[in-house]
Specification:
448 residues; TIM Barrel; 15 helices; 41% helix; binds ligand GBH; Glyco_hydro_1; glycosidase
Length: 448
Amino acid sequence: MVKYKFPDDFIWGVATSAYQIEGAYNKDGKGENIWDRFTSIPGNIYKNHNGNVACDHYHLYQSDINILKELGIKNYRFSISWARIFPDGYGKVNQKGIEYYRRLINALLDKGIQPAITLYHWDLPQELQDIGGWTNKKVVDYFVEYAELMFKEFGDLVPIWITHNEPWVVSILGHAWGVHAPGIKDYKIALKVAHNILLSHGKVVKLYRSMSLKGKIGITLNLSSIHSATDSEKDLLAAKIYDGFMNRWFLDAILKGSYPEDMKKLYNELNILPQFSDDDMKIINERIDFLGINYYTRSVVKYDENAYPLKVSMLDLDNPKTDMGWEIYPKGLYELLINLHKNYDGIDILITENGAAFNDIVNYKGKVVDDYRIDYLYRHLLEAYRAICDGVNLKGYYLWSFLDNFEWAEGYSKRFGIVFVDYNTQKRIIKDSAYWYSDVIKNNGITE
Ligand code: GBH
């Protein structure tokens, strides 16, 4: 018996990104990107792993799609590698790159699987980094040029488009903390990057509208449910600031057309506020069809005099965690969805990522019994279901991830897949969680 039934047209999918699965880093004319460069520098990544081969999905895409089909997965979110299309970031087009994505899209459609494309999942062409990367407004224009070509080539085949994946991660992890490519550590640069990324988003949405294509377009943000460590005034303020830093900065810009006043004031005092015009904000505010959100965990924060620059630090609670060290907190997904619904006009939402890394093992029967992952997914889906019942316009759910893959700074040490990848043989093993998810999709809901 299906106990929790989702809406009839609910989108069930899985997600991946190009650098994390494709490999073939120098095949068929692909240019170098910032993750190729960043991973080549010793000390940046766990055991100096890189995405040169990854899951070799570039060559194995057809058999991977067969697995999607076998599991009954009807929607697949993936990203395009910008440097496969424009090896230098702009100008000269690499036809082999276009042909690859055309083959991929057609192979999906042949099996009745709907593609959802992310245009930017962090792999900026290195040539563009060499002229300043996202700090340079030219890169904003090159992104529009790249998007335009993708819309012309694939706009009629692909019903869902995502401009950017997680601008917060790109700007903060890449340009303030330096743990992601391009490895810069400067908050002022990071906020400039965030602004230009948002601007490029708005311009691309506008372009999409002007081409009168039939699909939907949005952006994906990594959002966190923010909790304060105590009810003290200082901790409550810390939570408000962290919410402004991670969530509202991006949400308000995109959906309200202005950055939040409290954060503007704070960033100004810290001398890290980027320059921007009213026109910029109008462009960023271009109407989107849906908001994509990636949810993994919550953040519990406290006031901390010594924490630069926000005077906020994170608490490490002694609660159950995934292999990433992230607290398992399903209720945060519900909290987030309800808040978005209330504060942003009941906007249509897609969960574009949710999932968990665990230290999976292949047992003596050759199986991966990942009941801990099923538990994680089950509990999060239940919260999504509750949110729908309470009126949230949640339209779909993409599980991160289809395959085990290159987990950025953590290399191959973290496994998020519902399909296990043996990196020595490239053999795929369907985990129990994949069979479980397959049933969820078949039933359009959760059974007890
Ligand atoms: C996503 O990033 C990415 O889109 C995807 O490529 C990646 O593989 C996947 O999730 C799994 O990591 O950073 O300690 O403050 C998620 C990035 C993770 C950033 C949670 C914020 C909060 C905890 N987010 N993180 S911490």
